[in-house]
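for the writeup, i need someone to sanity check this before i put it in the appendix. the sequnce is what the collaborator sent (i think, or maybe the updated version? ugh). structure was predicted straight from it, no edits. if anything looks off just tell me and ill rerun, i have time this weekend
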Amino acid sequence: MFSRLFRSAKRTLESLSEQEILALAISSEEDDGRIYLAYADALRESSPHTAGMFEEMAREENGHRRMLIDMHVRRFGDRIPLVRREFVRDFPERKPDWLIANMSAQAARAQAEAMEEAAHRFYLAAAARTTDASTRKLLGDLAIAEKSHEGKARRMGEGEENRAAIAEEDAAGRRQFILTYVQPGLAGLMDGSVSTLAPIFAAAFATQDTWQTFLVGLSASIGAGISMGFTEAAHDDGKISGRGSPVRRGLSSGIMTAIGGLGHALPYLIPNFVVATAIAVAVVFVELWAIAFIQNRFMETPFLRAAFQVVLGGGLVFACGVLIGNA
C-alpha cells in the first residue's frame, strides 16, 4: 500500500510497451509541429525568413506524425493510447505558448536545435527497445530525420542569401530590443539618477538628518518613476514609430527611473551623516559611469563623449543641490 502511495505517477521509457512508445512518438510530433507553427506566427513580421523555416519544419513533423500513425494502425489498430511527454519521467519538456510569444529569432532557433536533439535521442532509445523490424526501421529513420532538423537552424545561415536574411533579421531584432527596452530604460536611468540629485543632496545638507533625507529621496524616486513610466507609455502607442509595446516601454522607463534615484537615496538609511553621504556620492559616480557605458554599448555613442555629457550634467545638478542645501 505504501509503495503505491509513494510511487511516482510518471512512467519510465523502459516501462512502455511498443504500442505506448508509438503513441508517445505520435503525440510528441503533434506537439512539436504546433510549437514550430507558434514560432512561425510569433516571428512572421519581425523575422519572415526564420518563420518560413519553422513552417517547413512543422510540415515535416506532420509527415512524421502520419508515418507513425500508419505504423500504429498496421500493428495495433485504430485506437491510439493517450501517452504524452509529461507522463514519462525525464522526457524533455517544451515551453508553453505564452513564453514563445516573447522569444527572439535567435532564441527560437536555439530552442529548435535543443528540441530536435532531444527528439533524436528519444528515437534512438525507442528504436533500441523495439523488436519489430519495420517499427525499428521507422524509428531509426526518424532519429536521422530529427538529427537533420537539429542542424537546420544552424545551416539556414549558410549561403549568401540565407546569411543576408539572417543578418537582417538579427539586426532588426536588436533594433527592436533597443527601442522597446534599452532606450526607455536608459532615459529613465538618466532621469532618475540626475534629476533626483538636487532634491536629495539639498535635503541632506540642509537638514543633515539621514532619515529625512531618505524620505525625500524615496518620494522623489518613486514619484519620478511613476511619472516617467506613464509618460513613456502614454505619449506613443508604438504602432507608427515601431517602438514596441507601450506597457513594456513604460515599465522599463519607470522601473529604471526609480532605481536611478533610489541608488543614492538608500545610503541615507545609515544613521551616520558623513558615512551615508560618502557612500551616496560613490553611488552617484557609479551610476553616471554606468549610463555612459550603456550609451556606448547600445547607442554607439563614443564613450568619452558620453562620459563627458553625463558627468558634466550630473555634476551641475549635484552642485545645485549642495549649494541650495547650504544656503
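The mean pLDDT is 80. Residues 225 and 258 are 5 Å apart (CA to CA).
thx in advance!!
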